[in-house]
């Protein structure tokens, strides 16, 4: 077994996270640069140190997860969501069950809550937001962001839903209350069901093809018939019908 394979087995035993389901070249490169920076010679030394050093373990988690996010990331797609997808979903159900999977630091589920609030009182908006990374979700719950996370946010939305505090922007409490954060590993934990809308963007690109196939099927099962699966702008599904989806719009798939 190679040094990296052994590391994968150790990490799985320690955390339940299966690095074998992430694209190997990318993940290995990212983690190698971390252990070299920390002065270790190989994955074995790195794992042993991680076992005793909680801070190092958190750095490892940080490096493997990649938490980059933004409000209204790829703004044109969110416009399609608001103008076309949500009105159509609301024709069937007055209350929508919505999941932001791999929500990182909260920009995505808060964007969802902001958009949904244009259709119903905020007290009726409820978004489930999940991620494998506790640190990212702790930041999400704080709801404080740098200006660069808001570069796609329209001025009127900024005024209505954020409070400027020095160099930062704080999301208002009414939006915060509409989002429930929960730890969830997409590659290991069971999925809830009966969703009208699942948003899972910019995480599937890190997974192996096999892991992705499995996940498309699981997301399909988690949706109601007619429910929508919204993916990232580099994450087109090449054969949606194989997973029970049809194309609703670019990067939006409808459960058949
Ligand atoms: C690049 S961020 C994407 C954030 C947001 N969805 C967006 O598009 O802006 C990727 C997120 O996926 C999360 N992630 C990685 N592996 C995961 C897994 N197995 N289960 C759940 N979340 C995972 C990371 O912690 C990180 O927060």
From TrEMBL:
Matches recorded under Gene3D superfamilies: Chemotaxis receptor methyltransferase CheR, N-terminal domain, Vaccinia Virus protein VP39
Molecular function as annotated in GO: protein-glutamate O-methyltransferase activity
Keyword Cell wall biogenesis/degradation attributed: no
A Pfam match: CheR_N
Catalytic activity: L-glutamyl-[protein] + S-adenosyl-L-methionine = [protein]-L-glutamate 5-O-methyl ester + S-adenosyl-L-homocysteine
GO biological process, alphabetically ordered: methylation
Segments forming domain CheR-type methyltransferase: 1-256
Protein's name in the database: protein-glutamate O-methyltransferase
Entry keyword annotation includes Transferase: yes
Stored CDD domains: AdoMet_MTases
Enzyme class: transferase
Keywords: Methyltransferase, S-adenosyl-L-methionine, Transferase
The enzyme's E.C. designation: 2.1.1.80
Organism name: Anoxybacillus suryakundensis
């Amino acid at each position: 077994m190679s040094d990296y394979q052994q590391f994968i087995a150790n990490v799985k035993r320690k955390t339940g996270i299966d690095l074998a389901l992430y694209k190997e070249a990318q993940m290995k490169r990212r983690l190698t640069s971390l252990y070299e920076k920390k002065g270790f010679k190989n994955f074995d030394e790195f794992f042993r140190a991680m076992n005793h050093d909680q801070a190092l373990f958190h750095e490892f988690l940080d490096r493997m997860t990649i938490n980059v996010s933004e409000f209204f990331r790829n703004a044109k797609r969110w416009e399609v969501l608001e103008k076309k997808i949500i009105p159509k979903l609301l024709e069937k159900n007055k209350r929508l069950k919505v999941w932001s999977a791999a929500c990182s630091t909260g920009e995505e589920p808060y964007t969802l809550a902001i958009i949904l609030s244009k259709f119903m009182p905020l007290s009726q908006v409820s978004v489930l937001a999940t991620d494998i990374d506790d640190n990212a979700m702790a930041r999400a719950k704080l709801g404080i962001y740098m200006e660069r996370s808001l570069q796609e946010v329209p001025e009127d939305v900024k005024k209505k839903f954020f409070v400027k505090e020095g160099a930062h922007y704080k999301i208002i409490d009414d939006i915060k209350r509409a989002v429930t954060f929960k730890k969830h590993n997409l590659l290991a934990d069971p999925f809830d069901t009966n969703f009208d809308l699942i948003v899972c963007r910019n995480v599937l690109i890190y997974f192996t093809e096999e892991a992705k196939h499995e996940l498309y099927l699981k997301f399909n099962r988690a949706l109601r018939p007619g429910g929508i699966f919204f993916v990232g702008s580099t994450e087109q599904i090449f054969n949606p019908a194989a997973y029970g989806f049809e194309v609703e719009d670019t990067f939006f798939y409808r459960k058949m």
